[in-house]
């Protein structure tokens, strides 16, 4: 039970405690102490699933772990809550993310201080792009938590993130800083403040904040890479590409290659793609990153991941890998069953993938025609506003490069819209200047 509690804690704090063997060590300890402990299997299998680094379609060990969890639950006397946890994990493994979140939310109605249900639900809503639900899920349970309870301060970060994703930036910053006043090492609260400064184009404030708090959040080894990603985004926003590349080389790529975590991996992909759109040569870095992404080309756990892996295979001009990713996704989309991501491939995912392929070929008009009808649906692929902005930028670049005059005028409209949403954004200013130079 101590090991299981630690894993819950590590999941919430984004921090491994190596003196206890880290998360993997605790997983092993739980299995050794009681191989039939159902909630131990729920936690260990659930964390693997939510991490999206393995697919039950490709990883038979993970598929077997899901089956074992369900089988153990069927032959034991469990509480109603334990049965719900098992049900949610089984649904998540099938890709029925919304149904899994419904079960976790039902648990929270009766047990509002169940941090495992809250965190799993939070991540599920994040993958679904359900921003309002992500905020409200935490808001509903907050009154039941008291300051003396373990992990209380970390609710501030969770709630703050939901607030910022629903554009309550000032309130999000206030709540996050309340959390930091209680726990300076809360990397998720830092992450939330980083988002606020980015969405408000407060670049100098963001850089200063990240530098002043680095010593606190760098200990959150499971989140540090992502926080460095935000740091690099500020540099890209400001046009300081060398500084962004330095952060990529020294922190983001190094950490992503070591961890293999999907959050770290997609961050590395995104940074290179953004820099490439800004005109920076990153081909050799793509080549190194391909070693990390290529083994996951047919996982198809999240469309969000697929789109980022595609950035790398396209950047490397690896046509065979690109084709393998697209063909396997199309095949799964034919019979998606309960899998939300495979269903989504038909309505938005494959078109977004094809748009990236067309952009890489220089077919900018085709890129615009594919992305334009989808741009208000990008949230469906999950992730944060900051992460999905790479696709907004892709549409702008394609529209500016298109030979179609209507597309060029559309690019101007997109830039006016962007400038209104993020006033004083240096990146937007640069794009506007580029559009003017092209006589758009």
TrEMBL record:
Protein's UniProt keywords contain Repeat: yes
Domain of life: Eukaryota
Protein name: Tetratricopeptide repeat protein 38
Residues of the signal peptide: none
Keywords, alphabetical: Repeat, TPR repeat
Organism: Bagarius yarrelli (Goonch)
CDD domains xref list: StaR_like
Family statement: Belongs to the TTC38 family.
SUPFAM superfamilies: TPR-like (SSF48452)
């Amino acid at each position: 039970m101590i090991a299981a509690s630690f894993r819950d804690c590590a999941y919430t704090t984004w921090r491994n405690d190596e003196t206890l063997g880290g998360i993997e060590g605790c997983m092993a300890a739980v299995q050794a102490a009681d191989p039939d402990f159902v909630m131990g299997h729920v936690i260990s299998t659930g964390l693997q699933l939510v991490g999206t680094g393995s697919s039950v379609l490709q990883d038979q060990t993970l598929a077997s772990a899901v089956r074992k969890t369900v089988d153990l639950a069927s032959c034991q006397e469990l509480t109603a809550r334990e049965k719900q946890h098992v049900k949610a994990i089984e649904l998540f493994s099938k890709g029925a993310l919304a149904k899994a979140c419904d079960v976790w939310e039902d648990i929270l109605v009766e047990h509002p201080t169940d941090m495992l249900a809250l965190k799993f639900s939070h991540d599920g809503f994040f993958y679904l792009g359900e921003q309002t639900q992500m905020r409200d899920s935490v808001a509903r349970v907050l009154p039941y938590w008291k300051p003396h309870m373990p992990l209380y301060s970390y609710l501030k970060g969770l709630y703050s993130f939901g607030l910022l994703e629903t554009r309550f930036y000032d309130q999000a910053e206030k709540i996050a800083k309340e959390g930091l006043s209680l726990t300076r090492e809360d990397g998720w609260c830092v992450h939330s403040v980083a988002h606020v400064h980015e969405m408000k184009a407060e670049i100098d404030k963001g850089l200063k904040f990240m530098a002043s708090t680095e010593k606190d959040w760098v200990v959150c080894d499971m989140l540090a890479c992502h926080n460095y990603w935000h740091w690099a985004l500020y540099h890209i926003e400001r046009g300081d590409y060398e500084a962004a590349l330095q952060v990529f080389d020294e922190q983001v790529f190094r950490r992503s290659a070591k961890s293999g975590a999907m959050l770290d991996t997609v961050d590395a992909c995104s940074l290179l793609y953004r820099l490439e759109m800004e005109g920076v040569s990153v081909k050799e870095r793509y080549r190194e990153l391909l070693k990390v992404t290529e083994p996951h080309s047919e996982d198809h756990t999240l469309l969000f991941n697929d789109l980022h892996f595609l950035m790398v295979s396209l950047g490397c001009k690896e046509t065979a890998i690109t084709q393998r990713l697209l063909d396997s996704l199309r095949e799964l989309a034919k019979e998606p069953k309960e899998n939300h991501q495979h269903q989504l491939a038909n309505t938005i995912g494959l078109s977004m993938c094809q748009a990236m392929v067309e952009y890489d070929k220089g077919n900018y008009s085709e890129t615009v025609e594919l992305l334009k009808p989808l741009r208000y649906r990008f949230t469906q692929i999950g992730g944060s506003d900051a992460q999905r902005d790479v696709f907004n930028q892709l549409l702008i670049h394609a529209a500016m490069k298109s030979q179609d005059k209507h597309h060029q005028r559309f690019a101007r409209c997109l830039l006016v819209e962007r400038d209104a949403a993020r006033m004083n954004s240096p990146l937007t200013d640069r794009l506007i200047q580029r559009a003017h130079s092209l006589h758009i």
